[in-house]
Design a protein that fits this description.
This is Alpha-L-arabinofuranosidase. By secondary structure, this protein is mostly beta strands. It has two helices and 21 strands. Bound molecules: 2-acetamido-2-deoxy-beta-D-glucopyranose (5 copies).
């Protein structure tokens, strides 16, 4: 009897410490510090103008980054890794057009480990929404050829791209709960889309998209990120364009929303330019303020699977920024990567 009491007591202690392991309450304001530029294009024969859209996981004591390479002629993808951010700028680039991903238009990657199939997935845009898989994240040559989630551009998206003006179908993002996988995308025209399929069918069977949210173009622009905080709390971030005039595609910042379900509805959290999730107004630069834009990037994930679980304190966000005076065509902008670290978060 005494032994069983002891067991019950031990179980309560264990359950309690699991419960305490993370704070699953999101604050309604965020504060960050940012580094100087950490990663720039290499001076190599590729002639890349900008390094963009990083997706990042920390796996086996190594940061693994997938990013877009941009220049006036177009986009492709790159992979690099490092063990300490002090070495990020020196990490060799592996250009992913050398893998099965191949040459041509590919951009805005998202990496995660799909536990049911024991495979890494890279989600990206190629005119459609595409994916490649790899058994080993450390083997960048191992990525498979692109496969599309949709047959052509879904009719709803086709229509949205022209309304009220010409947009672009961009920034695909996958997150799963314990039953479904959801695919988000944006149209640079004020609409956030969502499709879904079952966890067991993924990556096949994506449904026709629905409009997950709609607003003015600049208030719901692109680069959506959805994370789980707990099994019934989700965080949505969308990159938006601020009010200040700028020659470099606008000053970028992130708004945020929460929901108890990946399919919404979404309630505003820190969702204005003055109280953003991440933006010029809540970031303190420890060195030079090298950018006004805190643009497309990702929160560093240490939990690697398709549920994209993060702990909402001491978050670190690898973002793209650009020198404010840059005045060239959008694809040729000199985007660089910096790291924002959350401060005042309560764990
Ligand atoms: C959890 O985070 C919330 C929001 O930041 C904060 O109000 C609360 O005090 C935190 N709880 C603990 C136990 O730190
Ligand atoms: C590339 O060369 C330019 C000067 O030509 C220099 O300013 C820049 O720091 C170099 N970048 C790297 C990553 O070495
Ligand atoms: C990362 O590098 C910095 C600067 O060299 C060093 O101070 C820090 O201790 C390193 N961090 C780890 C975890 O090794
Ligand atoms: C780091 O990247 C290189 C390719 O540049 C790759 O060969 C190597 O396996 C990677 N290392 C780790 C630890 O993933
Ligand atoms: C950007 O450059 C163009 C010429 O290439 C010039 O007409 C325009 O005024 C410049 N814009 C800014 C904000 O400097």
């Amino acid at each position: 009897m005494r032994f069983f009491l002891f067991l019950a007591f031990a179980a309560v202690i264990a359950a309690h410490s699991i419960f305490l392991r993370q704070n699953t309450t999101l604050p309604s304001t965020f504060k960050w510090t940012s580094t100087d530029i950490l990663v720039s294009p290499k001076n190599d024969s590729r002639g890349i103008a900008g390094i963009k859209d990083p997706s990042i996981v920390y796996y086996r004591n190594t940061y693994h980054v997938f990013a877009s390479t941009a220049k006036a002629e177009g986009y492709n993808l790159v992979y690099f890794n490092f063990t300490n951010f002090s070495e990020a700028g020196a990490a060799p680039f592996y250009y992913l057009d050398q893998s099965g991903i191949g040459t041509g238009y590919r951009a805005a990657p998202e990496v995660f480990y799909f536990e049911p199939q024991k495979l890494w997935y890279l989600i990206y845009q190629n005119g459609n929404a595409a994916y490649s898989t790899n058994k080993d994240i450390s083997d960048p040559a191992g990525w498979t050829a692109p496969k599309n989630f949709y047959r052509g551009t879904p009719a709803l998206i086709e229509e949205g791209l022209k309304t009220p003006q010409q947009g672009y179908w961009v920034d695909m993002w996958v997150i799963c709960d314990d039953a479904e996988c959801h695919l988000f995308s944006s149209d640079d025209n004020g609409r956030l889309y969502r499709s879904q399929t079952t966890l067991s069918s993924f990556p096949e069977g994506m449904s026709d998209p629905v409009i997950a949210m709609q607003a003015n173009k600049n208030d719901l622009f692109e680069a959506s990120l959805v994370y789980s905080i707990s099994p019934n709390l989700y965080l949505l971030l969308v990159e938006c364009i601020g009010a200040a005039p700028s020659s470099a595609g606008g000053v970028r910042y992130f708004r945020s929303w929460t929901s108890s379900s990946i399919s919404g509805p979404w309630a505003a959290l820190a969702a204005t330019e003055t109280n953003p999730f991440l933006g010029e107004n809540n970031v303190l630069f420890t060195g030079t303020q090298w950018t006004n834009s805190l643009s497309h990037g990702e929160i560093i994930r240490t939990q690697l699977d398709q549920t994209l679980r993060i702990t909402p304190c001491n978050m670190r966000f690898l973002y793209q920024g650009v020198e404010p005076t840059a005045n060239v065509t959008y694809n040729a902008l000199p985007w660089r990567l910096g790291l924002a670290s959350q401060i005042d978060g309560k764990c």
